[in-house]
Amino acid sequence: MSSLATRSAQAVRQASRRSTRSATPRLVAQPAGTKAYSLLARSAVLSANSASRQPSVTGVRGVKTLDFAGTKEDVYERSDWPVAKLQEYFKNDTLALIGYGSQGHGQGLNARDNGLNVIVGVRKDGESWKQAMEDGWVPGETLFPIEEAIKKGTIIMNLLSDAAQSQTWPQLAPLITKGKTLYFSHGFSVVFKEDTKVIPPKDVDVILVAPKGSGRTVRTLFKEGRGINSSIAVWQDVTGKAKEKAVALGVGVGSGYLYETTFEKEVYSDLYGERGVLMGGIQGMFLAQYKVLRANGHSPSEAFNETVEEATQSLFPLIGQKGMDYMYNACSTTARRGALDWAPIFEKANLPVFEKLYESVKNGTETRKSLEFNGRKTYREDLAKELKEIDDQEIWRAGKTVRSLRPDYKPEA
Ligand SMILES: NC(=O)c1ccc[n+]([C@@H]2O[C@H](COP(=O)([O-])OP(=O)(O)OC[C@H]3O[C@@H](n4cnc5c(N)ncnc54)[C@H](OP(=O)(O)O)[C@@H]3O)[C@@H](O)[C@H]2O)c1
């Protein structure tokens, strides 16, 4: 149990305010790609290309217009919302954070550290209730059963699992009364309303702040004085202030930069991305490459190293730092030639799969599957079984031994 849990509510609030001051995130406004990287610096031609790719930035008070590969987009930033302004803006509000999973934890603690008035609503004595108490939320003061928290809140942040948002909606909807604001971190529930039955009342603002990462990252980046990128959107603007509120809340929960989108685009891109390259696609690609190596007599360690270890430890971080061309440039001429030849072949083979995936997202098939699976009573056990099947695959068993040889290895729990 953390030491926070043993403090009184007042001490927790004071600690929050203290840590707000000391950990007030400083904006590190350093656009990626502003420095020529060393490999390219050696090549006059490539350096010239690199210079022409410098991001063009124009800004008016915290709103930057950035040129994203030829398309101009507005990006909102934290610097326009210093902590004092945030606290003043939300001085009459109570943020009722419903659900305390990954996002509830990250967003809730960040908003509390920003000195905002936050309460948590979860099922009494469930896993989340215990977790919230460990993080210093106090039953009867800042921690309540869900319905009670909604009644007390002015901004209702629905951070239940997407399936739970749908299941609980009939009980929760009547409590979301005129004047309150309804907040989501995913467009899922309202965009796919035919399936989820989540139809917000007509007299409340409905907004979205969707951090582009896990709630744990939302928290760690905030504590490091940085901030996660988030999408913001408005579904319903009753007060005329919905967008401003979304930006302010985005900053309040720990975002550094906020990109404007719509609920539809947020949910389509998110469901598509995680099924594709981010999770489903990468597992499928790793496995296919590994299987062919094994079928051709390569040892598990060789197949793993050549498929996963080199990717995650050496090459993918280079893409993250400075782009695909930088990674190509950092590799041998032999590797580069082959990769340049094979990339379009993979693109052609994968394009129809991605088109099929996007359609499956857009027509709601993916939503219905997710609601069915995650709405089962046995969903935790069913998920654990499927994840164990992955963990038992030879590729990932081989990976455990490969990881144990890393210089910084710590035994896995
Ligand atoms: N995780 C991410 O990386 C991520 C990123 C961006 C946006 N989002 C979005 O943020 C929202 C929250 O996601 P999350 O991953 O933080 O949450 P999650 O872990 O999927 O959901 C956990 C919460 O839902 C509660 N819950 C589950 N079933 C319930 C039920 N039948 N009745 C009442 N409570 C129930 C759990 O409470 P108990 O402990 O009591 O079961 C827990 O507090 C979602 O809309 C998600 O799409 C997530």
UniProtKB/TrEMBL annotation:
Residues 262-409 form the KARI C-terminal knotted domain. Residues 1-29 are annotated as: Disordered. Its EC number is 1.1.1.86. Binds 2 magnesium ions per subunit. It catalyses: (2R,3R)-2,3-dihydroxy-3-methylpentanoate + NADP(+) = (S)-2-ethyl-2-hydroxy-3-oxobutanoate + NADPH + H(+); (2R)-2,3-dihydroxy-3-methylbutanoate + NADP(+) = (2S)-2-acetolactate + NADPH + H(+). Mg(2+) 2 binds at D270, E306, E310. Residues 1-14 have a biased composition (Low complexity). It is found in: Mitochondrion. It comes from the Eukaryota. Pathway: Amino-acid biosynthesis; L-valine biosynthesis; L-valine from pyruvate: step 2/4; Amino-acid biosynthesis; L-isoleucine biosynthesis; L-isoleucine from 2-oxobutanoate: step 2/4. GO terms for cellular component: mitochondrial matrix. Its main location: mitochondrion. Its cofactor is Mg(2+). Substrate binds at S332. One of its GO terms (molecular function) is isomerase activity. GO terms for biological process: isoleucine biosynthetic process; L-valine biosynthetic process. Keywords: Amino-acid biosynthesis, Branched-chain amino acid biosynthesis, Isomerase, Magnesium, Metal-binding, Mitochondrion, NADP, Oxidoreductase, Transit peptide. It is an enzyme of class 1 (oxidoreductase). Pfam families: KARI_C, KARI_N. This is Ketol-acid reductoisomerase, mitochondrial. Mg(2+) 1 binds at D270, E274. It comes from Rickenella mellea.
